């Protein structure tokens, strides 16, 4: 009997030990969670710091500067009932190793709402989508496109950038999107769009160029294109249009080849260098004295410069 009661006593003590162990384990878990919360091991909390447009912000070994922000309803073949908001962003890798950035490193935020770069950015020259590789010490200017609700002007949006496990940085967007520049620029003025500066040097009209003739008029325009970036840039003549009112004229590739440095299917400009490029447009004779302007830049997203051919 004593042995029996001894076994019962041992079993009872074992049960108590297990219960005590479980209780201690629960207490330790609660203390661990409480400690983690106390030391804020969770998500990074917004400390209220906001960089502004034009200010350089650093996360890890990456420096980010938002240069400009603008909006449009259409980008290439993409259209939206909301807003496409495009950010011109300069990214610099200040580290000693190559960095690979992905979409989730760049988010447009508004409170608990976040938006990753829209795939329409892939159709923009210099547009970012999915990923970007940047060598040590190098910088690049990219265009980030986000699709957001039309209530944009009422909200507090900011670009949040985070490299790896570094603290994110936040760059505030303006409450109201900038309005279109309505200043009238003329021949001889240098206008910068992104990393390209354009000056229209001269133009003239003729009905014959080489063996090419027209019943209308050829408008021949010479412009200096300066590449502000540190890399060779390739330009599409379709992004350099002649306009008057609602009419738009594209460069005539075939006739343009009659000239030295006539814009072909593509033309390139070396870094920190300029080229004088000749553009040819066929326009109606009835429009010879219209108020023409030379439009260039990111035509698909409405980020353009305008230079008028005649002063008024």
Task: Describe the protein's architecture and organization.
The protein has two domains: 56-172, Sandwich (Immunoglobulin-like); 185-308, Immunoglobulin-like (Sandwich), CATH 2.60.40.1240. With 312 residues, the protein is mainly β. The chain has helices spanning 2-38, 253-256, and strands at residues 56-59, 62-75, 78-93, 99-102, 106-110, 113-115, 131-134, 139-148, 158-161, 169-172, 185-186, 190-193, 196-209, 212-227, 233-235, 240-244, 247-249, 267-269, 274-283, 293-298, 303-308. The protein contains two helices and 21 strands.
Please describe the topology of this protein.
Blueprint: H1 2-38, E1 56-59, E2 62-75, E3 78-93, E4 99-102, E5 106-110, E6 113-115, E7 131-134, E8 139-148, E9 158-161, E10 169-172, E11 185-186, E12 190-193, E13 196-209, E14 212-227, E15 233-235, E16 240-244, E17 247-249, H2 253-256, E18 267-269, E19 274-283, E20 293-298, E21 303-308
Parallel strand pairs: 11-21
Antiparallel strand pairs: 1-2, 2-3, 3-8, 4-7, 5-6, 5-9, 9-10, 12-13, 13-14, 14-19, 15-18, 16-17, 16-20, 20-21
Main attributes of the structure:
312 residues, mainly beta, Immunoglobulin-like, 2 domains, 5-stranded mixed sheet, 4-stranded antiparallel sheet, 2 helices, elongated, disordered N terminus
Report the CATH topology name of the largest domain. Answer: Immunoglobulin-like
Strand-pairing-aware structural class: mainly beta
Distance between the termini: 119 Å
Percentage beta strand = 35-45%
- Residue share in helix: 10-25%
Number of helices: 2
The whole-angstrom Rg is 30 Å
What is the number of independent domains?
2
Number of DSSP strands?
Answer: 21
Order of helices and strands: HEEEEEEEEEEEEEEEEEHEEEE
User: For the residues shown, what is the average pLDDT?
Assistant: 82
In the CATH hierarchy, what is the class of the largest domain?
A: Mainly Beta
What low-confidence regions span 5 or more consecutive residues with pLDDT below 50?
1-5, 32-44
CATH architecture of the largest domain: Sandwich
Shape field: elongated
Q: Give the biggest beta sheet.
A: 5 strands, mixed
